[in-house]
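Predict the 3D structure for this chain.
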Amino acid sequence: MSDRSLIYPVILSGGAGTRLWPISRRDFPKQFIQLINEKSPLQETALRVSGDGYSSASVICNEAHRFLVAEQISQVGVDLGNIILEPVGRNTCPAAAVAALMVRDIEPEGLVLLLPSDHLVTDQVAFRCVAESAKTIAEKGYLVTFGMTPTRPETGYGYIKVGSALSEGEGGHHVVRFAEKPDLSQASDYLKSGDYAWNSGIFMFRADRLIEELEHHAPDILTAAVGSWEKSLRDLDFIRLDANAFEASPSISVDYAIMEKTDRAAVIPVEMGWSDLGTWDALWEVSGRDEDDNACSGDVIAVDTHGSYLRSDGPVMAVLGLENVIAVATDDALLIASKDRAQEVNTIVKAFDEAGSDKHVSHTTVYRPWGSFKGIEIGERYQVKQITVKPGARLSLQVHHHRAEHWIVVRGTARVTRGDEDFLLCENESTYIPQKTRHRLENPGKIPLIIIEVQSGSYLGEDDIIRLEDTYGRVETED
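Done. Predicted structure below.
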């Protein structure tokens, strides 16, 4: 099969998933979380667009998530194309422009499949079929979007009014218009009419055609994208877009910038078990439920409770005598809400932000390219963490100006650099790292290394790190 006949998937992984707080947080949003099964939405998306007919998928994400993206896709055995790092978020159209420029460099008429990283598709056969139909239509110069056949009067999705059938066939239709998220009455009217589809945010287009549309309808976006792509730099396995050029782009979606303006917009209505997994009630819709219509996950006991989404990733949850509620617990936060107000959970995140709280930013477990660390306890001038280092991985060679560290190995073997010393620590052994002493922790073994770290000092922030050497190419003061 020639390159020209391939579909080039580009996965957009920039969302924060604020309506799925407290599970989804800025540093570890919903696309990386096991929401339905043992794979994350990002992993499911990568698997969906792999195999015959597809080029290796590329991902566009922000810098903070670059190692998460690489590791999660590696875990499911999918070959990656490029991981492109956005310096700032600018919605989907600038990212689509960069995707088109990337594919154009390979094949000017190459077909880009642009899709979100955080959606659910349960009917993979239907997805493959609609992708083949979209391919045929896009090859003729149309910009194709996948329209999901609505099953209920949903107020959380945008809609597409489906027009007359394309003369080219393949199940494609002209787009009459895009509609904003409706109120319940409008959504009911859309459903009854049979003329509307949910807007999935999945697009297919020839690279050269999107660039032509950008030249005509959004030249400022194209200029910014061209500058950021042409001045991009390769950093390890990543491509860093030029920050100054990319930041100059307007922040706007593909829908607004291009699809609502072009006369070559097409939609293919399809049923493929799709959900954007954007809210807790959306997760309730697609989850398995018990005889009382409850979706339960984790250590949950529900008595005389009906129609609810109940999840605990932390302590045991006991629920008595409630209906249509959302109850979600982590080890450091609890959400209780009426299910019919699931769309408003992001207002809680905004309130945290305004109050200067970080409860919407990080979990107690924070992931790094070498493994993770989990906060256990923090007090005045001390902090306790559990550090897990993957086999063969190592932290940077670093110095702390304001804190000392005590390390106790509870599992595995650690190789420790402390000043001019280099030595091994086995289980139940410990060491002390004075402040201002260069040090490094490494796992030379074949099982995860777990240590308990006790920090003490006048300042314990993660930004008190001066990196002297780093396997992962991180800047000195990066968290």
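The CA atoms of residues 306 and 323 lie 5 Å apart.
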